[in-house]
TrEMBL record:
Protein name per its UniProtKB record: Polyprenol monophosphomannose synthase
Annotated organism of origin: Sodaliphilus pleomorphus
Keyword check for Coiled coil: no
Family listed: Belongs to the glycosyltransferase 2 family.
Listed PANTHER family: DOLICHOL-PHOSPHATE MANNOSYLTRANSFERASE SUBUNIT 1
Length: 262
């Protein structure tokens, strides 16, 4: 049975987590997901672990794109989005490799788009209070108020604007000119949501529990929040003075689709 849903997992030095997360998400009984790993030439051998899983366990459901180095989270997801559209997936989900995004939350996230009427479903840490486990208080406050700030500046009715656990209907990604998405780091998450919002797509938040990684090293630092803070001002400026260029949906004739071949 072919899957209609693809999970995109960017990786850099995730050898402690990658096999475990892939076994869980590809083994789920409630819904069949396929997975695409975007590996930025991890020196710890993450890519080789995925290669082995493709050969021995998941030849038709697990795929990998290997890049030359650390090229940025945003460009990793853009590469994954384009691959997903080329291979005719209907629901495309962003997910971290380190179990901070719980696999069981994939089900309601995908369902929000598949049957719940959402165009974009955001796995939200802040829609029902603060649902974050094992983060230092300083990091929780930084993340929470960053999302508040983005919400105020942009006018989006989204509580977790910086969330990285997101499901898109393919029509959203087909409509956005992915080559015009500017941000490479975590501000990419804000830009994608804001672009969908300005195009009139329906964004809903699905409550999740976010769990701090146990294994491996976090890639988060204060400069990431700095990018988000200044980037959102640029986004708002663009939406005011460059609306036609950036926030007009692509025509249907530009959409692509084919079979699920790798």
């Amino acid at each position: 049975m072919e899957s209609d849903s693809l999970i995109i997992i960017p990786t850099y030095n995730e050898k402690e987590n990658i096999a475990s997360i892939l076994h869980v998400v590809l083994g789920m009984k409630e819904h069949q997901f396929d997975a695409l790993v975007i590996d930025d030439n991890s020196p710890d051998g993450t890519g080789a672990i995925v290669d082995d899983l493709i050969k021995t366990e998941f030849p038709d459901r697990l795929h990998i794109i290997k890049r030359t180095g650390k090229l940025g989270l945003g460009t990793a997801y853009i590469a994954g989005f384009k691959w997903a559209l080329e291979h005719d997936y209907q629901y495309i989900i962003e997910m971290d490799a380190d179990f901070s995004h719980r696999p069981q939350d994939l089900i309601p996230l995908q369902a929000a788009c598949a049957t719940g009427g959402a165009d974009v479903a955001v796995g939200s840490r802040y829609i029902n209070g603060v649902n974050v486990v094992n983060w230092p208080m300083g990091r929780i406050l930084m993340s929470y108020f960053a999302s508040k700030y983005v919400r105020i500046i942009t006018g989006m009715h989204v509580h977790d604007t910086t969330a990285g656990f997101v499901c898109y209907r393919r029509q959203v990604l087909e409509s956005i000119d992915l080559d015009k998405i500017e941000f490479k780091g975590y501000a990419f998450q804000i830009e994608m949501k804001y672009t969908a919002y300005k195009m009139g797509f329906k964004i809903v938040e699905v409550p999740i529990v976010f769990v701090n990684r146990v294994l491996g090293t976090s890639k988060m630092n204060s400069s990431i929040f700095g990018e988000a803070m200044f980037g959102v001002i640029k986004l708002k400026w663009s939406s005011t003075f460059d609306r036609k260029h950036k926030f007009t949906r692509k025509t249907a004739s530009t959409a692509s689709g084919s079979s699920h071949s790798s």
